Recover the amino acids of this structure.
């Protein structure tokens, strides 16, 4: 099952959001999402947006490095198709799929297969878009909370510094 076939929750740009709850996202000047959360999060700031390609399968998400990106947002990830946001893939949906993979014994660490070297169809890389406290927008393709990446933005001495996520 590809992510565009999964159950996705609706999301609204913050500028168009109503007060009925649901998910909201902020976008940059080019219309690309930078944060995802709920309206009640606005007083503390929205968590960073994690963007997943619609063509990615649930199995690829749950057995690859993209799963680590979900640690950046407590709600889930935005599913994108050609620059258009389809909805939110909620963490509960991913958790339920992980349970089925675990029951089948197909989580990370499976033996390699010859078909692993072949990319079927179009391919897009999952990313997370973070705004550092210094104000620089950074795109990550991998994330390890124990070893946060460096922000390439200018720090106090004009050098890279540890990425400190700023709530939007």
């Amino acid at each position: 099952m590809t992510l565009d076939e999964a159950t996705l929750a609706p999301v609204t740009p913050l500028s168009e959001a109503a007060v009925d709850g649901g998910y909201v996202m902020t976008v940059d000047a080019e219309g690309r999402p930078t944060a995802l959360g709920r309206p009640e999060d606005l007083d503390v700031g929205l968590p960073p947006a994690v963007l997943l390609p619609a063509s990615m399968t649930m199995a690829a998400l749950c057995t690859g490095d993209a799963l680590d990106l979900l640690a950046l947002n407590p709600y889930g990830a935005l599913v994108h198709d050609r620059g258009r946001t389809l909805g939110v893939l909620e963490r509960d949906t991913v958790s339920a799929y992980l349970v089925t993979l675990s029951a089948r014994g197909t989580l990370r660490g499976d033996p390699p297969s010859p078909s692993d070297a072949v990319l079927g169809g179009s391919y897009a890389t999952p990313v997370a878009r973070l705004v550092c406290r210094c104000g620089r927008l950074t795109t990550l393709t991998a994330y390890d909370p124990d070893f946060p990446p460096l922000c390439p933005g200018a720090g106090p001495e004009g050098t890279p510094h540890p990425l400190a996520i700023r709530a939007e």
About this structure: The first strand starts at residue 11 and ends at 13.
